[in-house]
């Protein structure tokens, strides 16, 4: 006996290499897990409840594997300054940019951070997102970083949404450490990573590896601290220049390197060999008017798995739509529809180190997204239209 069955649906299971299509399919859930998936005619056994999907498409619940959802304030003023000719790097070097969000985030109470984050998470959910990653990185001191991570945990507790919390204390050098970048990296490695791990507040550790932020030695310190505390790692890398982030990430066995607009083919091949995932963030390319593009051809040639995420944050990607990112990944990077959709499901799960979701397959979490569309390409095609008609998290 199943708890619930969704029938009269077309399925994109993401099994195998493509979309894993099943016409006239059904999905059955038991105890929050997928118990059966396949053509309706073959559905075994009865269910306590049956949902007629009216021919809708069912995908695995979408996964936004890279967001900075929790922060104080916004940067609309900086957007206007950039329109008047200033650039992102210059604003950051002058103490604005990420550092202005740090000031606003440090000044905000936990409840205020949560209240601001809730509607953002709901906006992502409305499109069929069932798992998000949320990074810290606007505290840059122990207590403020832990506060951001606690808010991430509370989002997951208050909403029907799975939240993965990532410590990104190595996001920028805080003003107190101006000119002492390596000292701050040591503080992150020796104090903040251990504190987040001890409090059980971090599922992963991230480092902004970039000429604007942390170099190889700094990143290595933090990545080694993550490993000592049993936490998987990720890098923001090769975003503004070829910093060798892909190769560094491969060397440390990180789950993913994200951005990669300037990554070189040898680094990408090393990532593929190490089993990492390239997380593509077209919203940041677009919003910062970056002209370089990630080397998709090199990623394909290397067999490197690609994920797609919003990078939602106030400075470089104020984008609360994962469906829009699908469109941008196709239009700006020329991903195929299959690559883009695998990028927000099965490969996004891999970028978070999660093997229990991202496909429709027995045994995995029953996280589903239902869409009123005629074909999956529509999810990448429409701009500013949300065809999501339902969302299921752990079978409900
Ligand atoms: O992913 N690259 C660094 N971090 C963010 C930008 C954060 C900000 O500008 O506030 C990113 O693009
Ligand atoms: Fe980011």
TrEMBL record:
Binds 1 zinc or iron ion per subunit. InterPro entries: Amidohydro_3, HutI, Metal-dep_hydrolase_composite, Metal_Hydrolase. GO terms for molecular function: imidazolonepropionase activity; iron ion binding; zinc ion binding. It is found in: Cytoplasm. N-formimidoyl-L-glutamate binds at residues 138, 313, 315. Its cofactor is Zn(2+); Fe(3+). Its EC number is 3.5.2.7. Residues 90-373 form the Amidohydrolase domain. Fe(3+) binds at residues 66, 68, 236, 311. It catalyses: 4-imidazolone-5-propanoate + H2O = N-formimidoyl-L-glutamate. Pfam families: Amidohydro_3. Zn(2+) binds at residues 66, 68, 236, 311. GO terms for biological process: L-histidine catabolic process to glutamate and formamide; L-histidine catabolic process to glutamate and formate. The keyword Chloroplast does not apply. Keywords: Cytoplasm, Histidine metabolism, Hydrolase, Iron, Metal-binding, Zinc. 4-imidazolone-5-propanoate binds at residues 75, 138, 171, 239, 316. Pathway: Amino-acid degradation; L-histidine degradation into L-glutamate; N-formimidoyl-L-glutamate from L-histidine: step 3/3. It comes from the Bacteria. One of its GO terms (cellular component) is cytoplasm. Catalyzes the hydrolytic cleavage of the carbon-nitrogen bond in imidazolone-5-propanoate to yield N-formimidoyl-L-glutamate. It is the third step in the universal histidine degradation pathway. HAMAP family: HutI. NCBIfam families: hutI (TIGR01224). PANTHER family: IMIDAZOLONEPROPIONASE, IMIDAZOLONEPROPIONASE-RELATED. Belongs to the metallo-dependent hydrolases superfamily. HutI family. This is Imidazolonepropionase. It comes from Roseicella aquatilis. The gene is hutI.
